[in-house]
Design goal:
alpha/beta; 17 helices; single chain; globular; Rossmann fold; two-stranded antiparallel sheet; 2 domains
Length: 587
């Protein structure tokens, strides 16, 4: 069997991670022992001690586990190899399922509960991981600790005790659970706060002691859960890994409806909004982006690393061919260009006031996932979320008969303010319960030595990386340009929502956050791989055929970018992270 360069790197990295996880340190590094960060004299942060491995002491007896308002519904041992990930067996573990806070709603008469699942490995790393799930929740997905695309080792394989939950409602109750005030709160933040103490007690019952280190991680809505937890529950977690975080989710959902209305003005049929900008025309735009921006980082390789500069130098009117005799797939009409620019500039009301942030132009717009968010989810998923979960009061149930019509008729002037509204029934607005209370006030996280890594694709079709970059710039200002001591943001060129796109979207975020939290190894770069043919974690069909299937790139902490120096253009070692001045987007 031929071993690719990617597989050799992965094996070496995995062995290093396993060795680090198995090591029990009785001392700290000299820098940590001195209590000083050499880059920030006089502003040292605590260094948390590493987790200590342990062994599962009981499984079946967890059927009798007792915690207030908690019912255990199933306990069983899962033999090694029953589950696999990236072609490798997952070790033996104990599976526990249950529910918390079962109740009957006074509003809609539905029965609600917080369903959960925990998987507790026999060989334990001493760590707990809350696996925050995406979408509008409602499902207890397998608690394996799979967070990012093509993850070669999930949390369970790395020895985490992992828990996932449905955030307080079932899939059958989507999206109408939004009519119940408590279900809204659970979805927004309360389920995480409720389940976390129970989960730690369950871990203690299984191993004879609680976790030394606790982490929360997730993508999309799971990234939002993670960022909310960084503000609300920073005393409960030591490490936070947020991927494509929709931390302003109600605003983003409103922007989706607004965007659908813009696309409808140029779609050849409103029954299929993708006719506004089908893939062949998106390829024309992507080609223009690459012509202007691909070499800004020193190498023409199909990736735009210097995104901030790209936004300044790109001009759709000039750089994209204009159709002279109608649309033929090789050009855009002037009206198409105006609509595309309007959508990327960000949603606005009739008075020009911003409803959500801009989006950066990136060649990753060619991917099917980008189109799914812009042209289909915007008239199927988002209208239901806006109407029932984010608006106060909720919309009439009748809108379910035609969500597309609701989206296209949505009046942002009168309806968008409802995401900020509250009343006697819904005491917290959607923007209150769905977002971090103060996204730039992470003092508790910082001062106790906790850390956070945020990752976002530059071609995300629903949650704006400009919004995430703006948040990080605000965090920097609030911390005198020293936020990188405890939070780092990494933008992934070409990557779509959570994963996919013409991108190097395979990265080991869990190992990176553990190394930073427990060993003080701040991530100056994270090596990411393409998932081309033969990738053991699953092939990404968006990887271009002219790339090496195991291409690697360094992801650089914002606002630094990866710049080519010399060497193999397919290998991350040929790039350096440069540029520390605060970037602006130009929108």
């Amino acid at each position: 069997m031929t071993v690719t360069r990617h597989q050799r790197r992965t094996l070496a990295a995995s062995l290093a991670v396993v060795a680090a996880f198995a090591l029990v340190l009785s001392t700290v590094t000299p820098a940590a022992a001195s209590g000083r960060d050499p880059r920030h004299d006089g502003h040292a942060l605590p260094q948390l001690a590493p987790a200590r491995p342990g062994t599962l002491t009981t499984c079946e007896a967890l059927a009798a586990f007792a915690h207030p308002r908690t019912t255990i519904t199933m306990v069983e041992r899962v033999p090694a190899g029953t589950l696999t990930n990236a072609g490798a067996p997952v070790g033996e573990h104990c599976l526990v399922r249950g529910r918390m806070n079962e109740r009957t709603s006074d509003v809609d008469g539905q029965t609600y509960a917080i369903g959960f699942e925990a998987r507790l490995p026999v060989q334990w790393a001493g760590r707990f991981l809350y696996q925050a799930n995406g979408g509008i929740d409602g499902n207890v997905v397998p608690a394996t600790g799979s967070i990012t695309g093509g993850q070669l080792e999930n949390g369970l394989q790395l020895g985490f005790a992992v828990l996932s939950s449905d955030a307080g409602h079932s899939a059958a109750q989507n999206p109408l659970f939004g009519r119940d005030p408590q279900a809204r709160l659970d979805y927004g933040y309360a389920a995480v706060g409720t389940v976390t103490p129970m989960a730690k007690r369950l871990v203690a019952a299984a191993y004879g002691r609680g976790p030394d280190r606790s982490y929360i991680a997730g993508g999309s809505n799971g990234g939002r859960h993670t960022m909310v937890a960084s503000a609300r529950y920073a005393d409960q977690y030591d490490g936070f890994l947020a991927v494509a975080p929709g931390f302003n989710l109600p605003k983003a959902a409103v922007a989706q409806l607004w965007g659908a209305q813009q696309w409808a003005t140029i779609a050849t049929t409103t029954a299929d909004l993708e006719t506004a900008l089908p893939v062949e025309e998106r390829e024309v735009v992507a080609a223009a982006i690459l012509r202007r921006c691909d070499r800004l980082d020193g190498l023409a390789d199909g990736l735009v690393q210097d995104s901030a500069r790209c936004q300044r130098v790109l001009d759709l009117r000039r750089d994209v061919p204009t159709c002279a005799d109608g649309r033929d797939g090789t050009c855009l009409t002037r009206e198409q260009k105006r609509v595309v620019q309007r959508v990327f500039d960000g949603a606005r009301d009739s008075r020009g006031r911003a409803l959500y942030r801009s989006f950066p132009f990136d060649p990753g717009i060619v991917q099917p996932g980008w189109a799914a968010w812009k042209f289909r989810n915007s008239v199927q998923l988002d209208p239901a979320a806006v109407g029932f979960i984010f608006s106060t009061p909720p919309a009439d149930v009748g809108i379910l008969a035609d969500l597309r019509a609701y989206a296209l008729a949505y009046d942002v002037d009168t309806e968008a303010p409802k995401i900020f509204a509250s009343d006697d029934v819904y005491a917290e607005s959607a923007m209150s319960l769905m977002t971090p209370p103060d996204p730039t006030d992470l003092g508790t996280l910082r001062d106790r030595g906790a850390k956070m890594i945020v990752v976002h694709g530059a071609a995300d079709g629903v949650f704006s990386p400009d919004d995430t970059a703006s948040w990080y710039e605000g965090l920097e200002r609030a911390n005198r340009q020293r936020a990188d001591r405890f939070v780092r943001y990494f933008e992934v060129p070409g990557m779509g929502h959570v994963r996919g796109g013409p991108a190097t979207d395979q990265l080991d975020g869990l190992a990176a956050i553990v190394a930073w939290v427990e060993h003080g190894d701040a991530p100056d770069r994270i090596i990411a791989s393409a998932r081309g043919q033969g990738n053991p974690g699953g092939v990404n069909p968006d990887v271009p055929a002219d790339w090496a299937p195991d291409r690697t790139r360094p992801l650089c902490p914002y606002p630094a970018i990866a710049r080519y120096t010399r060497g193999d253009p397919e290998d991350a070692s040929s790039f350096v992270c440069r540029g520390r001045g605060v970037a602006t987007r130009g929108h």
